Structures are given as C-alpha cells and as structure tokens.
Amino acid sequence: MSPPALRPAFAVIGDVHASMELLRQVLDRIDEVDPQAVLMVGDLACAGNGRTRRASSIQQYREDLAMVLAAVRQRGRPFAFVPGNHDLRDLPEPENVDGRGTTLAGLRVSGIGGAGPDIFGFAYEWQEDEIRRLRLPAADVLLCHAPPRETSLDRTHHGWHVGSTAIRERASAMRGVLLCGHIHESAGAAMLNDCLCMNVGALGRPFGRPCLGFVQDLDHLWHEDLGTGRVQEWRRGG
Known about the structure:
This protein has four helices and twelve strands; from the N terminus they run βαβαβββαβαββββββ. The strands form two sheets. It has a six-stranded mixed β-sheet with strand order 3-2-1-10-11-12. It has a six-stranded mixed β-sheet with strand order 4-5-6-7-9-8, with helices on one face. By secondary structure, it is α/β, with parallel strands linked by helices. The longest helix is centred in the N-terminal third of the chain and has 19 residues, at 55-73. The chain is globular. It has one domain: 4-Layer Sandwich (Purple Acid Phosphatase, chain A, domain 2), CATH 3.60.21. Helix 1 (20-33) packs parallel to helix 2 (55-73).
C-alpha cells in the first residue's frame, strides 16, 4: 500500500482498547500516508462496567488511557477523539470533542461519544432522547462512537442491528461524513441520504486487527487492513 497522491484530511483510528502494539502499527502507517490530522472513535481503554468497576480498575484505565494518548501525541499531528462506552464520560483532555465542535484540516468536526441503550452498566451509556436533545454546531464530519442503526455498520456477528436511531437521524439530515466504531466486526461504509458513513473497525478484542480508515475529503473514504493488505474505497455517488 502506497501513500495517495494528495494528502488526506484525516486518518481515523477505531476502538483501541489499549492494544498498544496494534496502535503502533497503525500510527506507523499514518506516518507513511501523512494525513493532516487524526480522529479517534473511542474505546481508547476500558474502565469496566458496573459489575466490575473498582478503584483499582479505574486506576488501570487511567494509566492505559494515558499511554494511548501519549502514543498519538508523540507523532505530532493534530487530533481529536470522542470517548466510547468503555471510556469514562467526562474526560478532561483538550482533544476530547464529545458534545462540542472543533476545526481540523479545514473541516468542522463535531463529536458524540458513548453508546446506548443505558442498560448494560458500561462507563458511558445514554438513551436515544439524550442524543436527540444534544445541541451540536453544524459540522462537515460527525465523529461518533456508536454507528447509525439499521445499516451494515451496526450489525453484530449474530446479525443483530444494535446502533443508534438518533445518530442515524442526525446523519440522514446532514451532507458530509460520519465516522464511527463500536461494532468491531462491521468495518465498512454506507450512505444515508447525503451522508457518507464509515465504521473503521477495531484494534481491540473481539475481532481486533491492525486496521484504520482515511478521509481524503468529504466525497472519498477508504479503509485499510494492514494484516491482510485489503483496501476498500468509497466515493460519494460511486
């Protein structure tokens, strides 16, 4: 796999779950391609769920999170992330764009972290109406943890659709790009009206592998599996 002729706007890293060796492989590939910025879709580490969340596990989570963020920062590119359902909800890191917007690579990015429904006891869960009420600035790129519901991006290996209806509603109402993760086995892309959506997959278990996505621009995405060498490419209208 060779770098593209034009510098992409973003590299997109899926659910890391503190898988540092795979993260280093992905970051090396990012250095080769040289995008303008990096986006991360959450589940950077694992804070446990309500049945196992103890002070010791939270301390381990914070140490793992610090390693992940340090590894990305050391590469010297601007980046932004949203926390996933396995992350703590209110991470005070400056790159956290959950519930707010920023501008990177000349594009407006807004973030929605966590996942629903709020029944499993993970660290960051919500109900759909919370996402419907969320006020976000207009964006070219919607950076989410959870995928839009009833698409190829939210189907588990059992065949169940487990994504968010509220996120699907937001994607369907915008022209731009939605980036997500959460469902590790459903890397790929889908169109929702005029929104080009991509699930970038995961580095962490289960189904983890060295993979990542790229946003060339708002009309062109691709996904690379570094283990198999497989590249999938999608263009708006193509």
